[in-house]
Specification:
Blueprint lengths: L5 H13 L5 H20 L9 E5 L3 H4 L16 E7 L2 H10 L3 E5 L12 E7 L10 H11 E12 L3 H10 L17 H8 L3 E9 L1 H5 L3 H7 L4 H11 L4 H5 L5 E8 L1
Parallel strand pairs: 1-2, 1-4, 2-3, 4-5
Antiparallel strand pairs: 5-7, 6-7
Helix pairs in contact: 2-10
């Protein structure tokens, strides 16, 4: 399917995902992690009291497909927000529209955002950047910067190449994972992405999250990891979102999180 267009590929992946069961532990862990990231980003937003926060989320997978991980729905009924969401998949957009009545949903590509300069106070990229090759990352971050207001906030999460992930790729003989997708997913060195981010943003906070994701690539471990009680995931998340995050988890975490302010 990866030889087809990005729209067709993600339409196919969305329908395939809807047809299978997702482990509850995985859904709880990732959903709560994404919501924590959003909360941290919103704390950095500085908006006058007489207007709403203009928020853009650059994919709608959580809102249309794996809805237990919904982010925009948490803010949909609040009078404090003007919410926008885009996705490259028309199927995902249609699914999200059926659920979210107070969100402006547009089918669009993150490489060409259909918005005026300075439209948003905050942009949420919760593992969307890592669905394009490394060679196009700068173009996307430039678009995010253009679309944000002065001192606007970017919350960016992407799959990074930790030592554990590098070891897994070596075992599986996977190469060129920065510019050749592995099941639609690209993997980036965190320091390289940070260097590109710094061209447009001041980096305020960084976290190594998704520490259970690489471990769960081993099927036997996955059966155990995603059946644990919620309090276990809560504990892991508390540590991932602490000052010790980069020290404890950088070598084996699945995801890297950057929160930045536009220069």
């Amino acid at each position: 399917m990866q030889s087809c267009s990005p729209i067709d590929f993600w339409n196919y992946e969305a329908k395939k995902t809807l047809a299978r069961r997702i482990a509850r532990g995985f859904t709880y862990y990732i959903g709560k992690s994404y919501r924590k990231a959003c909360e941290l980003g919103l704390k950095l937003c500085r908006v006058s009291t007489n207007r709403r926060v203009c928020l853009l989320k650059v994919d709608l997978w959580n809102e249309g497909i794996e809805v237990e991980r919904d982010v925009l729905g948490l803010y949909e009924r609040s009078s404090l927000f003007n919410l926008f969401g885009i996705d490259i998949s028309n199927f995902v957009c249609s699914s999200a529209k059926r659920r979210l009545k107070n969100v402006h949903i547009i089918q669009a590509d993150i490489r060409r955002l259909p918005f005026r300069d300075g439209s948003f106070d905050i942009i949420l990229d919760l593992s969307t950047l890592d669905h394009i090759p490394l060679s196009q990352v700068q173009d996307v971050l430039s678009e995010y910067s253009r679309s944000l207001k002065k001192k606007g906030v970017l919350v960016l999460i992407f799959w990074h190449v930790s030592l554990l992930r590098r070891f897994i790729f070596k075992l599986l003989k996977v190469k060129n994972y920065e510019d050749q997708a592995v099941n639609g997913q690209y993997f980036f060195p965190s320091d390289l992405i940070k260097g590109i981010v710094r061209r447009y943003f001041y980096i305020i906070e960084e976290y190594c999250i998704g520490s259970l994701l690489n471990l769960s690539t081993v099927k036997v471990l996955a059966l155990v990891i995603w059946r644990l009680p919620k309090r276990f995931y809560d504990l892991i998340l508390d540590i991932e979102y602490s000052r010790a995050s980069k020290i404890l988890f950088k070598s084996f975490s699945g995801l890297y999180e950057i929160i930045g302010k536009k220069k």
